[in-house]
Recover the amino acids of this structure.
């Protein structure tokens, strides 16, 4: 079973920041938080991952709470092309990924 | 394009037929994963290889399924005697697993199978 809890859906206005929450209260010390997204009928796309510190790349920012029990993926300026299912995955850095149901994000004009 | 590629992208077959899918990983990636995704669900792990060795198989991988990676490069996934329940998207991912033990998997576009 997936070790994360995400809201099933959320809407975001184009051009605004999208903040996607993820709860992983049972995360262990050696487990990373990974985010992937899947645009309709395509394969999942890697976005970002982190262990303890906040991370930023060209796609998004990842904010992990100090106790590591939750995190937020931030898409700074959402576009229509960001409409997708976003998966938060707790992963011990090797081996199989366990996907949950994810959050369906719809970016509206 | 140097990403993961899968062939075919779509496959329609009749129940009872055999099908084979191919995955070409990112060059120099030593790990290759197969996942299956049904409508409305997240991907589920099937099996993975490190080089040519198959290291883990899910209980989802019944004896009708077989996967190979003969030379540690491309991989094939064969389904024998297909059933309607096999209809799904079959996803391949690859990664480089270094000595430090941390990897990131990159996915291909998937092969969508429909069994009539």
């Amino acid at each position: 079973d997936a070790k994360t809890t995400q809201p099933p859906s959320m809407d975001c206005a184009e051009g605004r920041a999208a903040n996607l929450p993820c709860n992983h209260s049972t995360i262990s010390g050696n487990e990373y938080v990974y985010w992937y997204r899947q645009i309709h009928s395509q394969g999942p796309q890697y976005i970002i991952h982190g262990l303890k510190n906040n991370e930023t790349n060209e796609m998004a920012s990842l904010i992990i709470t100090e106790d590591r029990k939750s995190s937020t993926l931030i898409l700074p300026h959402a576009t229509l092309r960001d409409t997708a299912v976003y998966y938060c995955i707790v992963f011990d850095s090797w081996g199989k990924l366990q996907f949950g149901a994810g959050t369906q994000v719809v970016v509206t004009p | 394009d140097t990403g993961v590629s899968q062939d075919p992208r779509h496959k329609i077959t009749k129940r009872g037929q055999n099908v084979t899918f191919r995955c070409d990983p990112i060059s120099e990636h030593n790990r290759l994963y197969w996942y299956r995704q049904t409508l409305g669900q997240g991907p589920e792990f099937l099996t993975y290889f490190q080089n040519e060795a198959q290291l883990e198989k899910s209980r989802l991988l019944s004896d009708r399924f077989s996967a190979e990676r003969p030379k540690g490069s491309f991989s094939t996934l064969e389904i024998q005697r297909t059933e309607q329940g096999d209809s799904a998207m079959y996803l391949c991912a690859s990664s480089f697993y270094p000595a430090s033990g941390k990897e990131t998997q990159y996915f291909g576009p998937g092969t969508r199978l429909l069994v009539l």
